[in-house]
User: Fold these one by one.
Assistant:
Number 1:
Amino acid sequence: MEWYHRNGPYEILLDGANIAFFGGGNQPVFRWGQVMRLWDVVAQRHPGKRMLLMLHRKHMNGPDARAPAVEAFLDRLQQQKAFYYTPHGSNDDWYWMYAAVRARHQGLLVSNDELRDHIFSLLRPKHFLKWKAHHIVHYTFTPFQHIPPQLIYPPAYTSCVQQLRNGTWMFPCAGGGD
């Protein structure tokens, strides 16, 4: 992750493959249009935040990657140092997870990946599950191009009962009441 150390940190990471394949069903198709639309929505909602699109190198070889709009989009991101593609033989998940953890408390990951395979591989997933609950922004697309993708942010507060260091218990409460 030498590249990341030279160019980071980033506050918002986008899981490019997850976004591109969203809604593909049994016939997954890589959709650059979804990546570009979601990038624009996130950038509008978070002006001034450093964003990074991460994607496996193999997706750069498809015919759609050579479309003029896609090439212009990727050129712009590369000039901004906002695009990183992972090398052959690597799982891109590990790269965006590393970058998301490096972003610490203010970091957000835009992905619908539930990370189940990573959770199952951990001996103690408690801290990872807490991180996941507070840092992953989910999204959805409609079939209508004129309607922008919707972002679903993690809740500002946990829904878990907590005990503070002084022994006080905190219980979540629905609504804006006491």
Number 2:
Amino acid sequence: MFRTSTGEEIFIIDAHTHLWDASPANQRNQYGRGWIDCFYDYHRNLSPAEYVWPLSDFERYSPERMAQDEFVKGYVDMAILQPTYLTEFFINGFNTIEQNSVMKQRYPERFILNGAWDARDGDAGLEYLRRQKDEWDIKGVKLYTAEWRGASKGYKLSSPEAYRYLEECARLGITNIHVHKGPTIYPLNRDAFDVADVDDAASRFPELNFIVEHVGLPRLEDFCWIAVQEKNVYAGLAVALPFIYPRPRYFAEIMANLLFWVGPDKILFGSDYAIWEPRWLVERFMAFELPQDLKDEFKVDLTLDVKRKIMGLNAARLYGIDPEEQLKKLGNDELAQQASSVEGMSKSQAGGAGSSARAETGA
């Protein structure tokens, strides 16, 4: 829970997190090594120095550390686990639903566990999707359209093969389709993450919600023109948000465009943990203000009510969560008790934005 300097409580859902294993023992080939090195470059180049991890910690971290970083130190009330399989690069997969389920089992009220599918997996993949629904009652999936599979280097969300899976998602009640449409990661191809294929899929399946992770960067304008037309297309801020630290003007321009085109009801906070820790992202975002020239040009503003929606209420609506009821469940759990005793967490200075905010963790 984050509390502003005026006592306003902000319910936070981190809509983009992972528990991954990129340790050398799990790297299948040079591409696994290159993948985590690329992730680490994002991490160290966009994070404040005090939040940069040693590479060995970044390659593989414990469930306990993740819980601490999210819920004890990071102001987060709930988090959504988003799988990324990458079995061509990692022996046991990089970040599968089976790996992520450890967090759900340990902290069932804190985590939402999403599944995954790949349109190239045919009937066997559809059966695996049904098993994920049966075993974990998933409400969403994370898709990686640029993932390599044998000789194939990606697929289209608008393909007939993908539509079989989207039809099955609709039938099973898996309504939240999180799709990576943003910066590439070595060695994947940038064009395979092009946001264009979201357009037809969203039109064809109005009963599903398409959360475009990373807001389509570097194709922000393309994404915005799709999202303004398709009412079921949402913006996931993971990867865009960390620019608030090294390039605040760039981040302000991203936010002004999103608020103008997409609107405050369709933007979701996400840290992309463990690429970035939520604590500094939350502090800086809650203290952030749009420059006056962007307010004047776009006729938008990052008010407290807008931030409240982005930080948690929008994701709560998509996943059928009542924030007040959820906070009651979380109020006395182990993590809330730990958070309440963390020295210095009752008052935080949101660095770099010129304004202070008082913060609390736990429920």
Number 3:
Amino acid sequence: MVRQDYRSHVGVILTILEVIDDYQGAGVTEITRDANLPYSRAKTYLQRMEEEGYLDRHTQGRKKPYELTKKGKEFLKTLKRAEPFFESLGFPL
């Protein structure tokens, strides 16, 4: 049987923020593909992160990509700085 690693909620959030940052704005398709998330789960996280002010959406033609807000960029930096500490304790994000 293949062992499956599960990500924590924080790990999923970190991955989503990284994908959006890498693309400098990403749609749901890019996020679900690159973060390896089902559409419904991705939408749940994205809606919550948008409500909390970490993400924003801007219309670009027919597309409405998610972009990091200033608050989202700061949160991403904080998570990246904290990641090695969690890993050293045996809790990879």
Number 4:
Amino acid sequence: MVRKWPKVEGRSKKQKYFTLLLIPNNENTMKKWRVPVLLVPIMSVLSIIGISAIVFFAYGYFTYQGEVEALKILRNINASQAEQIRELEQQAKALEDKLLTVDQLDQKVRALVGLDQFETGEAGVGGSLEPLAWEDEDRWQDRERRQTILNTSRRGGSNEEEYLHLTRKIAENYEELREQAEKQAIKLERLLAEVEERLAYLATVPDLWPGEGRITSGYGWRKNPITGRGKEFHEGIDIAARVGTPVRAAAGGEVVFAGYRSGWGRVLVIDHGNGYRTQYAHNSSLLVKVGEQVEKGQTVARVGSTGRSTGAHLDFRIIKNGEFIDPLTMLKD
């Protein structure tokens, strides 16, 4: 005879719940919760998702904060660079103004020493400066537009293309200024050489009045001042002055004669080069000797009445290439 065991309810079925018991240490009633079995994996998945979300958002938050700080730093750098570019542009414009001023001075110096007719023909020499990029209406006309870009950069705004364009323009302007400065340096060096050469030439041109006084006899035909009869050709001018009045060299040069000649009295002849010579006659005394180099305006003698003379005066004559010329065509007022 086979014995049958009684059936146990639910043993063959899957368990549907977990029972959670909370047993306090005191005598309070024990608490019990029934948790469905399916809730455990769901809660696990939700926990993983929640933790992942927290990690993701935390990472994003800190990354965002880092980017915000980096952006602040970049904006500060950008504003600083904009300010530096503004200052550089102002300095570049000031330099351009100075170069233009130098160019104007160059022209004035040339005019003063009579170099206007001298053209060197070299690039950057003897000509005016060309306008720089910011003065070119076709390339860089709107200054307010540049100012807006710089102001936007200072506030932290961004327009990268405009900003880079401005930076390139500043660089181009500086390159042009550098080239202009080099040309101007060459130009000024050439001008200095020309001025020195011109001044050396002008120093030998007898255009300085040889002394103070009034003209009593000019260049050309006149009555004989001694006899009062007949006519003679006067090859110089007579300047009446008191005895002892300084006689100045009309130009720089070398004394080629200093002594006494019949009719002329004490006479002085200076060779200035370039075909010019000057003669000073009727002096009371001579202050230089033959072979001595004299400068323009130097006192070389004193007015007198030596030789054939009707009174104290200076007989002044200019010889050009061996021929006497009218001194008044050379002397400056």
